[in-house]
Automatic annotation (TrEMBL), chain A:
NCBIfam families xref list: PRK09212.1
Annotated protein name in UniProt: 2-oxoisovalerate dehydrogenase subunit beta
One Pfam family this sequence matches: Transketolase_C
Domain Transketolase-like pyrimidine-binding: 4-179
SUPFAM superfamilies xrefs: Thiamin diphosphate-binding fold (THDP-binding), TK C-terminal domain-like
Oxidoreductase as UniProt keyword: yes
UniProt superkingdom: Bacteria
């Protein structure tokens, strides 16, 4: 097995699916000759030709609309939105068009599209590049939203996303692209969409996170265990729409305490939804109110204060202590 | 000094029949058999009657959302008639006639109007997408459909229909631009009926024609008399042939007029249009014009007209009856089932809740 970064694992998944299924097409801004601004599509145009891997004009709405038209005709487009802050430009094509295709046509047409996009803070991008807008798609019935936290998951989840017959938004945290390597099998494998993973077993408190925050949560868990011996369980959601309620509830019933961590702003986000599910299904198991560790409810800041704005291990530790000491 | 833009001669309006039915451009006369000419007339008369019946059914509360089409028959029917059966139509909410003449059963159009899911279950051999509500979204989707044809080496064309208002949206331009760059077999068919609900064309754009917007995208632009069914047929046929031959996309601007309101949902055109203007356009009526042309050739008579009127009335009555009787009726659990290929657990749970209510 090779040691791959997340970006290499993503390229690997794209290559394998392009090889396996001639209906898979990869396109977006700069994805062809340049191999993508992060090199996620490096070498793919050379290998598969300009008909299957191609550059588009710089227009997100048309990129997404093009994907819808191709999907209706039986292709499986993998469209790249260069940065997720640009997703508003194609919100109509995703939420009003792709997400509604199956229903509007009573199952006659489907939209097996993957919208891939880099996102996430801590890498000092310009404005409107890093924003965590995934919550908007948690409120969009008809799409799935996948956010891997490591190379192994990224490959297996992306292959699942490409084979899925519904539109999947696949969000790649920029900070994770090259931050570490992991053993990734060479062959194609899938990880089911909608299944969370328990990345650290524990008995005293459950920390629920996704994307880069999984690593922040793991650091905080180590610190808490070192400081006070509490056993922290950490869940990586991997998919935020649909949520793996079963894994969340099972863990909270075991630990009786929960902290939900997200990079996005606090109000009406993924964490709020997770807490609502816990309240509906496991309220009586709780020993303390569930705490949210999130960014504040402001617009995404300029780079200079990004580090202070984003949740860090210290804030997660605070959150864990709060529920342990309630 | 004024810098008034003069209309560009290359976007002069293509016309074959004058409003009195005489041929003004014999060189452009399309190669259609007598039967085909009669069929064009049959479809326009049928559509006019169906439109009248639909408006009446809507007023009786027996139909749902409906956007009247009278006045636009030549644009709608002439263009669809120029397509092959396996060409693909991406319509907007007013373009139900093209869908039906392309093969969608009329009762399904009525079910769509009522918001029943079966209305959108297009039969396998009918190559249309459901009508678009977002006014230019189909322009970008058309490029995807057309690119699929090109990738598969199929000699098929994708055509989208939209109104003059849609040309103000980014997706209109983005779609044409993509079509130009990828040189896909697409037709952008704009029915310029002068009003986007109530806003007149001169408040929609400062350009003298919409056809010239094709120049910015590097595709061909054509302007046609949209009340002249032969001219519409001619320019669409040509655009389709060019597309099939790999010569790329065309924007067609058809100058037409809707006699009725924007939709039956409370729009009152007397608030924004004058009677004089209405009468002026009525003089250009596509049915009168084509009927005069056919009558002069001995191809159409009052009996023909009456036969089609009766045929249309009967077809509408049959279709509405079929829609009324269509089972199963819509349920919330059907809606839940249609969200994903397989239901995620949270929807399983919500489906169970609604199933229990529906079972009561």
């Amino acid at each position: 097995m090779a040691q791959l970064t997340m970006i290499q694992a993503i390229t690997d998944a794209l290559r394998l699916e392009l090889e396996r299924d001639p209906s898979v097409l990869v396109f977006g801004e700069d994805v062809g000759v340049n191999g993508g601004v992060f090199r996620a599509t490096e070498g793919l145009q050379k290998q598969f030709g300009e008909e299957r891997v191609f550059d588009t004009p710089l227009a997100e709405s048309a990129i997404a609309g093009l994907a819808v038209g191709l999907a209706v005709q039986g292709f499986r487009p993998v469209a790249e939105i260069q940065f997720f802050g640009f997703v508003f430009e194609c919100f109509d094509a995703i939420a009003s068009q792709a997400a509604r295709m199956r229903y509007r046509s009573g199952g006659r047409y489907q939209a097996p599209i993957v919208f891939r996009s880099p996102f996430g803070g801590g890498v000092k991008t310009p404005e409107l590049h890093a924003d965590s807008l995934e919550g908007l798609f948690l409120q969009t019935p008809g799409v799935k939203v996948v956010i891997p936290s490591n190379p192994y998951d990224a490959k297996g989840l992306l292959i699942s996303a490409i084979r899925d017959n519904d539109p999947v938004i696949f969000l790649e945290h920029m900070k994770l692209y090259r931050s570490f390597r992991q053993e990734v099998p060479e062959e194609a494998y899938t990880i089911p969409i909608g299944k969370a993973s328990v990345v650290r077993e524990g008995t005293d408190v459950t920390v629920i996170a996704y994307g880069a925050m999984v690593h922040t949560a793991l650091k905080a868990a180590e610190e808490v265990e070192k400081a006070r011996g509490a056993k922290v369980e950490v869940i990586d959601l991997r998919t935020i729409n649909p949520l793996d309620e079963e894994t969340i509830i099972r863990s909270v019933e075991k630990t009786g305490r929960a902290v939900v961590v997200q990079e996005a702003q606090k109000q009406a986000g993924v964490a709020a939804e997770v807490i609502a599910r816990i309240n509906e299904k496991a309220l009586l198991s709780l020993e303390a109110p569930v705490v949210r560790v999130t960014a504040p409810d402001t617009v995404y800041p300029f780079a200079a204060i990004e580090d202070a704005w984003l949740p860090d291990p210290a804030r997660v530790v605070e959150g864990i202590n709060k529920v342990l000491d309630f | 000094m004024s810098m008034a833009t003069k209309e560009r001669p290359e976007f002069d309006t293509v016309q074959i029949l004058a409003p009195d039915g005489t041929v003004v451009n014999p060189d452009l006369m399309p190669d259609l058999s007598d039967d085909q000419l009669r069929e064009l007339m049959r479809r326009m008369v049928f559509t006019r009657i169906w439109d009248q019946r639909a408006i009446s059914l809507n007023r009786q509360g027996r139909l749902g959302f409906y956007a009247p089409v009278a006045g636009q028959e030549a644009s709608m029917i002439g263009s669809e008639f120029a397509l092959n059966k396996d060409d693909f139509i991406l319509p907007s909410y007013r373009d139900i006639p093209q869908m039906v003449w392309h093969g969608l059963p009329l009762y399904q159009a009525f079910l769509y109007s009522r918001g029943h899911i079966h209305g959108g279950q297009i039969p396998e051999d009918v190559h249309v997408l459901m009508p678009q509500i977002i006014i230019a979204a189909q322009c970008t989707q058309t490029v995807g459909v057309a690119m699929a044809f090109k990738l598969r080496g199929e000699k098929r064309v994708a055509i989208c229909y939209f109104g003059d208002g849609a040309t103000s949206q980014g997706d209109f331009y983005e779609g044409m631009n993509f079509a130009g760059v990828y040189r896909v077999p697409a037709i952008f068919f704009c029915q310029n009926n002068r009003y986007a609900i109530s806003v007149p064309l001169h408040k929609q754009t400062a350009t003298p024609t919409l056809a010239q917007k094709a120049v910015a995208a590097g595709i061909r632009g054509v302007r046609v008399d949209g009340m002249d069914v032969l001219a519409v047929y001619r320019v669409t046929k040509e655009a389709a042939e060019r597309a099939r031959n790999g010569e790329g996309a065309t924007l067609i601007e058809a100058l037409t007029y809707r006699y009725g309101p924007h939709t039956m949902a409370g729009d009152d055109p007397t608030r924004y249009r004058t009677n004089e203007e209405f009468s002026e356009w009525e003089q250009k009526d596509p049915l009168i014009r084509f009927r005069r042309f056919l009558e002069a050739k001995g191809l159409w008579s009052e009996e023909d007209e009456n036969r089609v009127i009766e045929e249309a009335k009967q077809a509408v009555a049959d279709a509405i009856k079929k829609a009324d009787e269509w089972m199963p009726k819509q349920k919330v659990t059907d809606l839940i089932d249609a969200m994903y290929e397989t239901l995620p657990p949270h929807l399983e749970e919500q489906k169970a809740e609604f199933a229990a209510r529906e079972g009561r």
